[in-house]
Amino acid sequence: MRARRTTTARPPVTGFGMGTGRACVTTIPAGREIVIPPGGCTGWHYHRVRLEAVVLAGTLTRVLHDLTVEVHRPGTAFVEPAGIGHIHLGHNLGTEPVVLHVTPRLPEGTPFSIPTPAPAGATPEVCLHHTH
Predict the structure, then answer these.
(1) pLDDT by residue (tens digit) across 56-68?
(2) 0.85 surpassed by pTM
(3) Mean pLDDT, the chain, as a whole number?
(4) Residue 65: which residues within 8 A CB-CB, separation 6 or more?
(5) CA R_g for the chain
(6) Which of 6, 15, 51, 71 is placed for a possible disulfide with 80 were both Cys, Cβ 3.0 to 4.6 Å?
(7) In Å, how far from its chain's centre is CA 115?
(8) How far apart (Å, rounded) are the C-alpha atoms in residues 79 and 53?
(9) Contact between 49 and 32 (Cβ < 8 Å)
C-alpha cells in the first residue's frame, strides 16, 4: 500500500497564547499532507531535502536505516534528515489513518521521496510488502 500525498496550504489556526488568555494566530507552514491507511506502509525511501513532520492523526511507526523503531502519536513532530544514509519507512499499525503534515513544500513535479532497497537485516515483518 502506498501513502496518498497532497500539497496543502494550511490556513491560520486561532488559539490562546501560552496561558496569557489572549487570542493568537499561528500560521502552519505550507507543505504536503501524507495519509497512510490502516495497515499501510510507505516502503523504504529517503528524501533529497530535510523534512519536518507533525502527526495530525493516527499513530505512525517509523523504522530507520539502522532498524531502530520510533513511534509518533498525534501532536508529535519529528525530523527526517536528507540523503541516502537516512533511508526509512513509515508504517500504520493502527485502525485509523495516519495523517502527517510535512514541510518543506517542494515544486510541483519534484519527487517527494526516492524509493530504495531495504537495509541489510530488514525482515518481512518490518513491512510485509516493502522488504526489497
Answers:
(1) 999 999 999 999 9
(2) no
(3) 80
(4) 85, 86, 87, 88, 119
(5) 16
(6) 51
(7) 15
(8) 6
(9) no
